[in-house]
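Quick start: load a record and inspect it. Here is Helix-turn-helix domain-containing protein:
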Amino acid sequence: MSKALIPTYDICSLAMGKPASEDLLVARFSDYLEAHKDIRFPHRHSFYHLAFFTAGSGAHTIDFERFQVAPGQLYFMVPGQVHSWFFTGKIEGYVMNVSASFFNAFLQDDNYVERFPFFSGVSAEGVVQLPRENIPAISELFESMLTEIQNPQGYGLDMLRLLTLELFIKVSRATNPASGKQELPHNYLLLRNFRKLVEQHYMQLRLPKDYAALLYVTPNYLNSFCRHMLGKSAGEIIRDRVLLEAKRLLTNADMSIASIAWQLNFADNSYFTKFFKKYTGQTPEEFRKHLA
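Running the structure step on this input writes:
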């Protein structure tokens, strides 16, 4: 395993022989793979990343969870997630890299994109399978984006924003019809706010009651709500976020187990090791060896 940190790419660093854009890259999958043969290894992005498979096989891993490739599959990633891929045969489809700020000049709500369930930052929720009848429409949207990029006209960026939002909405409608309905705003707002708070505070706040207080609900309500929405208690969601960060840090061979325990706010190395093994079935050292 490399002794360096997992590399983090920005959009410009993945430009494909064209004028680099800081906000958007759209490409056919085969062209993208040919231009960036080295990024099959674990890496992160500083942007939202979307891949759409129309042909091919193999697997891709997002935050240490492995998924088999299938035609009609899309995977959505938020900034900071770790992923890699292991493809067999010729892969076809499309890739999109889009910055978090791409829509800011276009939408009043800076957090609009986070409303889509596939941008939750949870690996399994970011991998969706399109019904066969929806595949042509999504492919057509990607082709329209490529045409717009290759033959720029007036209001080009705004057209690309419209096409991108149309893609997100059509995928969401096809795979999760209940999302976005006006009669369900409270549940999705509470879930989104809880997940954002966990993302901000998981290193310091480990108890559901801490988050319940920030959300102005009772701990019992928060736990029952999480079980209803996600099939997990609030405590499990907090714990899973701590474990994910531990796994990400363990990919850096230069960090000692003690340093990782300290960074994650554990009392000592022994407590961290017991916690990690209890919920993963491996010690941190064993997990790190399997990454090599």
